[in-house]
Specification:
heterodimer, A: 15 helices, 2 strands, B: about 325 residues, ABC transporter involved in vitamin B12 uptake, BtuC
Chain lengths: ~325, ~325
């Protein structure tokens, strides 16, 4: 099955899921949250998966997008749909600048991780501290995407409208990811990952490719941040905290499969299902399980579900071929 | 046993600056008050130095950036608080807290870190970051149910008056304890066989093996030592301020910043950076507010990373 067809099948499956349980607002919210995290993990797959830049400020970048879109929409008195490109631009420029500086200084993945973790903490501190603008830690309500009105017009909930918008964005992003990796850029990313010095010697502009990947990932995260506050209906710094966003995005991506197209989707489905089961079985200990999951995934299962399944499938096919007479 | 004194944060200086937060006119601050702030600042700085040294020792020896160091500090305090609630005296309870953290250190070293040390180079560094982060999250999750509030060591230190200066006795105690521990660490590394063995591994692992030092055993010892130091740091801090489960990650970020600024493989560097950053941040929060002070901390860390990335290489 071609990569594009797989993306189509996955997106179609996600589009069909709300039909299983209709009219449950909590189910719709859970699903929309799942797609938000699949999208964030797709962005991290570009930054970390494709170019080895371990971004630990996904939460802060989502916040940059969310605050940019909501504050500028409020200031101009327009819909947040009009300010959405600005969110992509500002978050993309922020991430691109960080990538550019880090690539010029020849930072390793670990250094990028520590640098962006510091930026994550500084930015969330800024969201709290600039309370004149952001309303401090209490935040402010956000309805500027007009989801409820759109839902009323269509006879469904606003959350369901948002869900389908997010699924459409996910389909586009995954198709874009496939296309990106199939392009000249994808070849350059692979060359840089394999041997940075050799890539540089072969005339590949490492700084430019890293910057482009970082900016692209940042722009996607900025847009998703706006969808995220649309889902939550309010904007507050705690939404973008490291322990709330980045840790989950990392588990989703690595569990699903780093550098695999559908890894973010599979990871998000598994993690969200697990989260819901935990809520039913043992309340209050979900952080314990997630901490343990982070440890186990990194120690024993860095391959990820999708690559592991592909390898198993390939082995099964091979043994099937071997049995047939030549 | 939640603290009755309302919200006390690590910004001890603000407590002494009065109820109204940072003074509007800096010139109005009297010298006695400045001295009091200076004492609190040094106490906070030495607390940061202990945390930073905890990170530095482990990273220098085994390339593991211990993101659970703040959780270790908080765990020590919470165990001590629980012991006091059971009727144990404060001093033995504090010792119990440190021993409990050291035991946790042994368990983590035998299990998780053994698995991390199997990989090499950059992969080990990444693995160390995520395994200790997962550990911190898991331990925080376990602690938050029995300890949902903010806690402080139930000791009334009061205020010591030196001339016009109302000095917080808790800060003086923190300074005394932290100085003794830092000095002890330096003497241990300089003058004992195990300390010298540790420094050998720091500088040249192959060479250390050649002269008969077993790096893995030294790593275990130093990890447990760093856990105990983190526990002591937490207790020294909790003598004058409240600590909750959520403080753990905050402490870890402080420790990472200190070690990044001081050089992640240099114990004296980390100690000096902790002291310096603590003093600067306390004075900044006293003079211009906590928000600017915390931002300053992150800006300094980012600047240090950009200026000398090789300290983490």
């Amino acid at each position: 099955m071609s990569s594009y067809r797989r993306v189509g099948v996955a997106t179609g499956a996600l589009a069909a899921v709300p039909l299983l349980v209709t009219g449950s607002s909590s189910f719709e919210r859970t699903l929309a949250g799942l797609v938000v995290f699949a999208l964030l993990a797709t962005a991290l797959n570009v930054a970390f998966g494709a170019t080895d830049q371990l971004f630990l400020f996904t939460g802060a970048l989502a916040g940059v997008g969310a605050y940019t879109a909501s504050l500028s929409a409020a200031a101009l008195g327009v819909s947040a749909w009009l300010t959405l490109p600005l969110a992509a631009l500002v978050a993309g420029a922020t991430a691109g600048l960080v990538s550019w500086v880090a690539a010029r200084r020849e930072f390793t993945a670990v250094l990028v991780a520590i640098l962006t973790l510091n930026l994550q903490l500084a930015l969330t501190e800024l969201f709290v501290g600039a309370s004149g603008l952001t309303g401090g830690s209490t935040g402010y309500p956000f309805e500027a995407l007009g989801l409820a009105a759109a839902g009323d017009a269509l006879g469904v909930s606003g959350t369901l409208v948002l869900y389908y918008l997010l699924v459409a964005l996910l389909g586009l992003s995954l198709a874009g990811y496939v296309r990106l990796l199939d392009s000249r850029h994808g070849l350059a990313f692979a060359a840089i990952r394999a041997d940075e010095t050799a890539a540089r010697a072969a005339g590949i502009d490492v700084v430019r490719y890293r910057t482009a990947a970082g900016a692209l990932a940042g722009a996607l995260v900025g847009v998703v941040g706006v969808g995220y506050i649309g889902l939550e209906s309010y904007v507050a710094p705690s939404l973008f905290a490291f322990l709330r966003v980045d840790v989950l995005v990392l588990v989703v991506l690595v569990l699903g499969g780093l550098r695999s197209t559908l890894g973010p989707v599979v990871g998000a489905v598994v993690v969200v299902t697990l989260e819901e089961l935990l809520r039913l079985l043992i309340t209050g200990y979900d952080t314990v399980v997630f901490g343990a999951l982070l440890i186990v995934v990194f120690l024993y299962f860095r391959q990820g579900i999708v690559p592991a399944a592909e390898a198993a499938l390939a082995r099964w096919r091979e043994s099937g071929d071997a049995e047939e007479p030549a | 046993m939640p603290a009755s004194g309302g919200v006390r944060t690590h910004r001890m200086a603000l407590l002494l600056a009065g109820d109204g937060g940072p003074p509007a006119v800096v010139a109005a601050v009297d010298p006695g008050q400045l001295l009091a702030v200076a004492v609190d600042a040094v106490a906070f700085g030495l607390f940061l130095a202990l945390l930073g040294v905890g990170i530095t020792l482990v990273f220098g020896l085994g390339d593991v950036l211990n993101l659970a160091v703040g959780t270790f500090a908080v765990a020590g305090v919470l165990v001590a608080v629980a012991l006091v609630d059971l009727g144990v005296g404060v001093a033995p309870a504090a010792v119990g807290g440190v021993l409990a953290v050291a035991a946790l250190g042994v368990a983590v070293d035998r299990t998780l870190l053994s698995l991390v040390y199997r990989s090499e180079g950059q992969e080990r560094v990444l693995l160390g970051i995520f395994v200790t982060l997962g550990l911190a999250i898991a331990v925080d999750g376990l602690l938050v149910k029995p300890f949902p509030g903010s806690y402080t060591l139930p000791v009334e230190f009061g205020v010591v008056r030196v001339g016009p200066a109302p000095l917080a006795a808790a800060s003086l105690a923190t300074i005394a304890i932290a100085s003794v521990v830092l000095l002890g660490l330096v003497l241990f590394l300089r003058h004992t066989y195990l300390g010298r063995a540790a420094r050998t591994v720091f500088q040249d692992e192959t060479g250390a093996v050649l002269v008969g030092v077993e790096p893995r055993r030294v790593r275990s010892l130093v990890f447990v030592l760093s856990a105990a130091v983190a526990g002591i740091a937490g207790l020294a801090y909790a003598a004058g301020a409240t600590v909750g489960v959520a403080s753990g990650f905050e402490f870890t970020t402080f420790a990472v910043i200190v070690s990044v600024v001081g050089g992640v493989r240099s114990v004296p560097g980390a100690a000096a950076a902790g002291l310096l950053l603590g003093v600067v941040v306390q004075f900044a929060s006293f003079l211009v507010g906590t928000f600017v002070a915390e931002m300053l901390l992150f800006v300094v860390a980012v600047a240090a990373l950009l200026a000398r990335p090789e300290v983490l290489g």
